[in-house]
Every structure is written in structure tokens, then in C-alpha cells.
User: Fold Saccharopine dehydrogenase from Segatella baroniae F0067.
Amino acid sequence: MSKVLMIGAGGVATVAAFKIVQNADVFTEFMIASRRKAKCDQLVKSIHDKGYNYDIKTAQVDADDVEQLKALFNDFKPELVVNLALPYQDLTIMEACLACGCNYLDTANYEPKDEAHFEYSWQWAYKEKFEQAGLTAILGCGFDPGVSGIYTAYAAKHHFDEIQYLDIVDCNAGNHHKAFATNFNPEINIREITQKGLYYEDGKWIETEPLAVHKTLTYPNIGGRESYLMHHEELESLVKNYPTIKRGRFWMTFGQQYLTYLDCIENLGMSRIDEIEYEAPLADKPEQKVKVKIVPLQFLKAVLPNPQDLGENYDGETSIGCRIRGLKDGKEHTYYIYNNCKHQEAYNETGMQGVSYTTGVPAMIGTMMFCKGLWRKPGVWNVEEFDPDPFMEQLNKQGLPWHEVFDGDLEL
Ligand code: NDP
Assistant:
């Protein structure tokens, strides 16, 4: 028996829900809870409309509120809580899991709302509490973070004695035919991209100006794309768990149009995350004006396309992988492992585009690893700290097959 509660009903959660239902032999009871119950019910309807006959419970919960979470967990009694809400809710959900004896999985590390800053220290601080409670917490189980760490663990287990150079490369060569849109939650996405770059070299972290370092990299089946060095959370755990790494970097592609819009958004002050005061008429009494506090980036999110609606006209594909250089039997080797995912295939299966798909599928596989007893150990862990082999086997079965290139030119 495995009883799973998923929090969130957005793009990533939709894909994870489809995949959970497709693996009904593993997941016997399933509930979706989110800020708005109607959104959960709509998701269940879209699953049933695709012909899956699976009983899914739904509930309303504000995941910022530990007491509400505890009441829900004590009522449904899930074995595992899958957090596919936003990074802001990681700590409240972990707190409630501890209080109610539930295990935990997420896809993005904690970020305080008032500071665009992410690092694992907040969640790693729960390690002892989860250990003492005999509970497992699996952190960062999407694609990147997630599969990027599992690829690295697989490379370390099977192909290298010593990993020395690691470059995670993330290309979205898709086109959604909108002037500007983000592929996952716009608020989280813009906060991440406008941060300073950061990479690891010879035991030190080196900061760069936002998107200042870039070069053209060649992606399989896609070709050359300008790729920008960014800070990405999995580097923090990977350089800790693989101390032989001399340099660890993360690269992501952006089109020129996206960058031009992003520049305008920043220059107009619309990426601000502090509150501004604004006087506006009341929605139901327009003659009455009130002063409200608005966070410009949250307002921008409200007017941008919803990433969940991008799928229908999205063509092209993503290509995400790890380019690794290191030693095996005293000789230097290179290794490139990657997945390409077509947006239209993701849409046909789940109604969501490829970025939600490449995140939701690994979230389900991590959930499966836990439920099958393959990834269970008390404490708080990043994905590379578990056995990568059963996860890698499922990637091939669940729609994200991987490919390897041995001793090729890494370009990096
Ligand atoms: P969405 O904004 O589409 O979905 C978030 C969901 O969480 C929405 O249903 C939202 O409710 C719900 N939610 C937000 N706040 C609360 C709250 N306080 N209580 C309950 N529910 C809440 O985001 P995505 O699906 O695009 O992304 C989900 C997560 O996946 C994010 O944390 C993101 O950072 C992560 N991610 C990870 C990636 C990886 O590779 N590791 C890649 C892409 C994303 P409502 O619908 O009412 O707004």
C-alpha cells in the first residue's frame, strides 16, 4: 500500500499526477491538495477525460500555514507528501511532515519570499530531526535539480573513479509563439534568472554578473545555442557530495527576444519583489478606492501567459544533460549524458509543455522509488545520495530516455 498526498495543482503537478495514475500498481491511494480546490478538481477531470479511471481525492490547503497542513495530514494520513507547490512552502510542509510522521519529497529548494536567494542550508538544517523521527526527505527531485544529480551519481558509479569537471547544460529549443512567457512559475523563474551567476572552482565559489558569461554550445538534434552561466542549486550539493570536483558550472540557453524582454521588465521595475503602495478601486464597489500593497513581480505574473497554457502551440524540444570530465583507471575520459524531450509529445500525453513534463516525471519516479522502498533512509537527502540505477531504469520507461556519448568533445 502506498498513500501519496501531492501539494500543488500547477504545470509540474499536472504531469506528476498523470504519471502517478499511469503507475496505479504502485500508488494505491492518491490525494491532490492546493490553494484552490477547484484547480485540483479540474486536474482530476482532465485525467478522467483522458480515459484514466482512477479515484483521486482533492482538498483545499494553504501550504503557508503549518496548522492547516497538519490537519490535512492527520486526516488523510499520507505516507509521503510530494511538494509541487512553490519553494516558499518547503519549510512549512517539512515542519508539518515532522509533526505528523510523513515522509517528504520536493523539486526546488527553499526560498524566502522577501529575498531572491536560494540555498540548501535551511532544509539541510532539518536532517537530524528527520533522522530522529525515522522519516525520509528527498530534496530536488525534478530534472535540474533532480535528474542532473542522478546522472552525476550514475556517472560516478559506473564510468569514473574521480569526477573532476561537471557542466550541467540545459537547453530549451522550443517555441511557444508568445512574445514573452516563462516555462514554469513566472515569479520563481524571473527571480532565478535575474540573480548573479555563481560557479565552483578549486574549492571556492565565484560570482559573476547576471548572465554575463556565455558561450555557444551544441545540443543533440538541435545545434548551436547561446548558453548562459547561472547559479543553480544542485551545484551546492553535488560539489559537497563529490569532493573531487574541481569545477562545477550550470548553463542555460535563452533566446535574444527573451533576454530583451527580461531587460525591459527589469528596467521598468516589474521584477521588483518588495511591496509598493497602489491606490485602486474595490472590485465589487468601484466607487470606493483603497490603498493596497502590490509586489510588482507578483502582479506581472498575473498578466503573463500561464505556463500551463503554453503546451498547445509549443513546438521544438528541450535537451538537458551533464558534461563530465574525469579519471577512470588513471586515464582522462569525457562523458555526456542527456535527454531530449519534445514539447508536443509532452502536450499530447498530459496537456502540459516539455518543461513541466521533464520536472513532473522525475518527481513521480522519486515518489515511486520511495514507495517501492528503494529510496528510504531517515534524514534529509539530495537525490545523488541514493542509488541512481533503479531511477535511471524508470527514466527510460516513463518517457524521459537518456543517451550517452563517451570521449566526445564537451566544448567546455
Ligand atoms: P505553478 O505556479 O504552475 O504551480 C504551483 C502550484 O502550487 C499552483 O497550483 C498553486 O496554486 C499552488 N500553490 C502556490 N502557493 C500555495 C500555497 N500557499 N498553498 C497551497 N498551494 C499553493 O508552478 P510549476 O508547476 O511551474 O512549478 C512547481 C514547482 O516546481 C516550483 O517549486 C518550481 O520551482 C519547481 N520546478 C522545478 C524544476 C526542476 O527541474 N527541479 C523545473 C521547473 C519547476 P494556484 O494554482 O492557486 O496558484
